[in-house]
Amino acid sequence: MIKAIIIDDIEQARITLKKDLETYAKDVQIIGEANGVVAGAKLLKSIQPDILFLDIQMQDGSGFDLLDILKEINFKIIFITASDAHAIKAFRYAAIDYLLKPVDPDELTSALSKFKADQLNENEKYKLLNESLKSNNKPHERLALHTLDKIHIVNINDIVRCESSVNYTEFFFNGGKKLLVTKTLKDFEDLLSDQGFFRVHQSHLINTKFIKEFVKTDGGYIIMTDGSNVPVSTRKRPEVVKMLEEL
Question: What gap in Å lies between CA 182 and CA 219, rounded to an integer?
Answer without folding.
Answer: 30
